[in-house]
């Protein structure tokens, strides 16, 4: 799948279609195993949300890393968002823990390292506010109170910080293409 993603990033539309079809199959199984039986519509929605996220964030993919790690990281975040929206807690049988931890731990660790590396490029205050709001799920009001800022300042800091990070990612992807 990594080779298909590399080809897709190079402009191969056929490879991209195949990649998305393969990813959809993997995602369907991934979400079906983690949701309550009978939630087929939710599985389909999560697959579509994840495919859309892959499409929107495809330029953040690091071609030197495995595609499936990147895919699982995105899928995991979509699943966490789903559980938060639906206020659900998840339990898994203990015999499934090894499989769950090995794949998801690697993906989560890789994603966390990438996020940490990127966040290290912005000022500490901006990094802390982005972490609070975007990664830890705190509200703007909670972050403002904890950081001694106005809500408007928190919103502006997050917006400018995320915009700065997006610009940095665009530059690094453009730089990578020149190699």
Helix and strand topology:
Blueprint: H1 2-9, H2 13-34, H3 40-56, H4 67-85, H5 97-119, H6 124-135, H7 140-147, H8 151-177
Helix pairs in contact: 1-2, 2-3, 2-4, 3-4, 4-5, 6-8, 7-8
Could you explain how this protein is built, in words?
This protein has 179 residues and is mainly α. It contains eight helices and no strands. Helix 1 crosses helix 2 and helix 6 packs across helix 8. The chain starts with a helix and ends with a helix. Residues 172-179 have low confidence and may be disordered. This is Sigma-70 family RNA polymerase sigma factor. Pfam families: Sigma70_r2 (PF04542), Sigma70_r4_2 (PF08281). Residues 31-87 form the RNA polymerase sigma-70 region domain.
| Rg value | 18 Å
Structural class: mainly alpha
The biggest beta sheet is recorded as: none
**DSSP helix count?**
8
What general form does the structure show? globular
Name given to the CATH homologous superfamily of the largest domain: RNA polymerase sigma factor, region 2, helix turn helix motif
Whole-number count of domains: 2
- Examine the secondary-structure arrangement and name the CATH architecture of the largest domain: Orthogonal Bundle
The portion of residues forming beta strands comes to under 5%
Point out poorly predicted stretches.
Answer: 172-179
Oligomer: single chain
By CATH, the topology of the largest domain is Rna Polymerase Sigma Factor, Chain: A
What is the end-to-end distance? 22 Å
Protein name: Sigma-70 family RNA polymerase sigma factor
Pfam families: Sigma70_r2, Sigma70_r4_2
Organism: Plantimonas leprariae
Keywords: DNA-binding, Sigma factor, Transcription, Transcription regulation
């Amino acid at each position: 799948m990594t080779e298909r993603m590399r080809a897709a990033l190079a402009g191969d539309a056929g490879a991209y279609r195949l990649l998305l079809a393969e990813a959809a199959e993997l995602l369907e199984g991934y979400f079906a195993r983690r949701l309550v039986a009978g939630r087929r519509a939710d599985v389909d929605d999560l697959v579509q949300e994840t495919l859309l996220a892959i499409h929107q964030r495809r330029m953040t993919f690091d071609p030197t890393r495995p595609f499936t790690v990147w895919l699982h990281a995105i899928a995991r975040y979509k699943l966490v968002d789903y559980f938060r929206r639906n206020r659900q807690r998840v339990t898994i049988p203990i015999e499934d823990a090894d499989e769950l931890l090995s794949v998801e731990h690697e993906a989560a660790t890789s994603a966390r390292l990438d996020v940490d590396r990127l966040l290290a490029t912005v000022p500490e205050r901006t990094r802390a506010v982005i972490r609070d709001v975007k990664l830890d799920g705190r509200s703007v009001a909670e972050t403002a109170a904890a950081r001694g800022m106005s809500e408007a300042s928190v919103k502006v800091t997050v917006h400018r910080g995320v915009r700065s990070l997006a610009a940095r990612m665009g530059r690094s992807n453009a730089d990578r293409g020149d190699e």
